[in-house]
Specification:
The chain is mainly beta and 323 residues long. Helices cover 12% and strands 38% of the residues. It has four helices and 20 strands. The strands form four sheets. Strands 3-4-5-9-8-7-6 form a seven-stranded antiparallel sheet, with helices on one face. Strands 10, 13, 15, 17, 18 and 20 form a six-stranded antiparallel sheet that branches. The longest helix is centred in the first third of the chain and has 13 residues. 34% of the residues are buried.
């Protein structure tokens, strides 16, 4: 997690001190009402308390989360799945100094925990409280594309959650990304190949958050053959070479399915020296690696013996889940 901007925190705390207070009213573990956007209610839920929601100078009011406005303001938001929250009172939003502010009026402080849980568990932001204050938090997205401060404030009968969004340092990765837990390595082209790090002994493909790396080892063959001509369409992996599939530690691999060139699926399985953390099977032109445990890494190596040749792959589909 990046260090906080001390000047910003001092200013933010000053605003908190002279503006709405930080009283922790309400049950922080209050019940959730699906008819109220999944947000908690006060009391036993038999009667929803009236929420006072006056206009805010300089901010526009909308009924739904202002996704489009946030996207126009932020630079790297397209690299992640951005939060989209609900609220029975809608949202006030607009520029506020160096941030894009979104405010919603709520029934109690317990709503802060609802949003916090969504940020952590649905949108995978890392969250820290600021200076130990329970109602003031800093959040940062994976790969630091988007940052925000969010807090609960109360002044009189106005109770609100305030989000202040701004750019993180940014993710300069421009390659393909996994979609819905599937990392697709198209080996008919070189879209996922990290050409800047490719050598005669190593080549890496990345579909974030997964990688596939081929190593020459002591095979006597260059990775991808002479001049790397065989790095695609199909990728050729020679006797004695190995392939390592990895996902970031927060994930584990559930299956790897390989489309081999015609006649090479059986060779992929039968000529394996070893397959770490998985078993292998084939049907037609498809090879399946099935993990033997909740692992973030599977390694495959071809035998380096007489009469064992290369295998040829056209694509790899790696399925993963979050831990």
């Amino acid at each position: 997690m990046k260090k906080f901007n001390l000047l910003f925190i001092i200013g933010l705390l000053a605003l908190t001190a002279c503006g709405p207070g930080n009283s922790g009213d309400g049950d922080p573990n209050g019940s959730q009402d699906p008819d109220n956007g999944g947000l908690p209610q006060d009391g036993d839920g038999s009667e929803t308390p009236e929420i006072y929601d006056p206009a805010i100078s300089g901010l526009a009011h909308v009924d739904i989360w202002p996704s489009e406005a946030l996207s126009e303001y932020l630079t790297y938001d397209t690299n992640i799945v951005m939060p989209e929250f609900t609220s029975s009172t809608g949202f006030h939003h607009g520029l506020n100094d160096l941030f894009y502010r979104v405010v919603t009026r709520v029934a109690s402080a317990s709503v802060l925990n609802t949003y916090k849980n969504l940020l952590e568990n649905q949108y995978y932001f890392t969250i820290e409280s600021v200076l130990g204050l329970p109602n003031l938090n800093y959040a940062e997205s994976e790969y630091d594309d988007v940052r925000l401060y969010f807090e609960y404030r109360q002044e009189g009968n106005i109770k609100e959650i305030i989000f202040d969004f701004y750019d993180g340092e940014g993710d300069d990765y421009t390659g393909p990304r996994a979609v819905d837990g599937l990392a697709y390595f198209n080996l008919k082209n070189r879209e996922a190949l990290d050409t800047s790090s490719t050598t005669s002994t190593r080549a890496k493909w990345e579909v974030r958050p997964a990688t596939m790396t081929v190593y020459a080892n002591s095979s006597g063959y260059n990775v991808g053959g002479t001049n790397g001509d065989q790095l695609s369409n199909p990728l050729r992996i020679y006797a004695g070479q190995s392939v390592k599939f990895t996902v970031e530690d927060k994930y584990y691999i559930t299956e790897i399915k390989i489309l081999a060139a015609s006649g090479y699926a059986d060779k992929t399985v039968d000529n394996a020296d070893y397959i770490r953390n998985a078993t292998a099977s084939y049907s037609g032109d498809y090879v399946t690696f099935t993990p033997t445990n909740q692992t973030s890494e599977i390694e495959y190596k071809i035998l380096q013996v007489t009469n064992v040749g290369q295998v040829r792959w056209l694509d790899v589909r790696l399925q993963m889940e979050r831990r």
